[in-house]
């Protein structure tokens, strides 16, 4: 795998960094439930931004609004200054790629074929060309295969190119999802719980992979429950609670924010508008992760030593 070693994040905004993704006043209602409440978020080029929050906070729903799976009830989502159409394939074409909380591979296709599927938004060959299979088609196919193999090298899966996706271990299936997303040549990659169910070594490898992706010039927005992963990785972290953006700042600031710790611990959030009502608690694992991460001196995050919460604690919400 072509990766950099795990390192301190680069500054969030370098002089030549520009806004890539701009979500403005996004609201998503499902009947009487407001899952996302007026959330605005910007991701700049060169950044790795984390999106965290308790179960049911609205993180995946927000991702779905960003990637065209849901049409937000209100608000706009722009990429490089252009409002994105709420159609997933057009969003991908514009430069956003994503992975899903619940792995979505073509199980009976090979690893290479899965990555080739991810390239379809970047190939011009149409149905007629595919039927005729002339020189243009063969040239385009050869180029796609070469790029797909490069991505498999990059993610450490090249030796398994001809394996069926369903035969890969779980951690490698997640990597393959990332390789397939990268095949659309995105400027921004959205990862929904990329380390869920991974062991500590796989989590560390994923961390290095994300740094390497950023080093390739691709910005990353990542949802994750593993707080050590998030705080070690991200230049900036946004915290959603009950669909609202509670706090946004650098990892150092967010992990010490009492409101964040309170939200994860299920204690009342102090400050304006306080009602004294308890906030929804995250899993106790997430709570202790925040607390223990907050106790670490800046720049001395421990290696991850716990897997993310079990999948059965997560909701099937990539609908
Ligand atoms: N398609 C849908 N229809 C109705 N309600 C939905 C739908 N998708 C999500 N919700 C609800 O919206 C709220 C936010 O869910 P969401 O999955 O976005 O949270 P999350 O922060 O991603 O949670 P988790 O960390 O458990 O994945 C929940 O109450 C959920 O039940």
TrEMBL record:
Q: Where would I find the ABC transporter domain in this sequence? A: 21-267
Residue span of region Disordered? 270-319
PROSITE patterns, alphabetized: ABC_TRANSPORTER_2 (PS50893)
Q: Where is the composition biased (Acidic residues)?
A: 308-319
Alphabetical keyword list? ATP-binding, Nucleotide-binding, Transport
Give the Gene3D superfamilies listed for this entry: P-loop containing nucleotide triphosphate hydrolases
- For this protein, what is any one GO molecular function term? ATP binding
Start-end of Low complexity biased regions: 277-307
Q: Name one Pfam family in it.
A: BCA_ABC_TP_C
Answer whether the UniProt record assigns the keyword Transit peptide to this protein.
no
Q: What is this protein called?
A: ABC transporter ATP-binding protein
Specify the species.
Streptomyces polygonati
- High-level lineage: Bacteria, Bacillati, Actinomycetota, Actinomycetes, Kitasatosporales
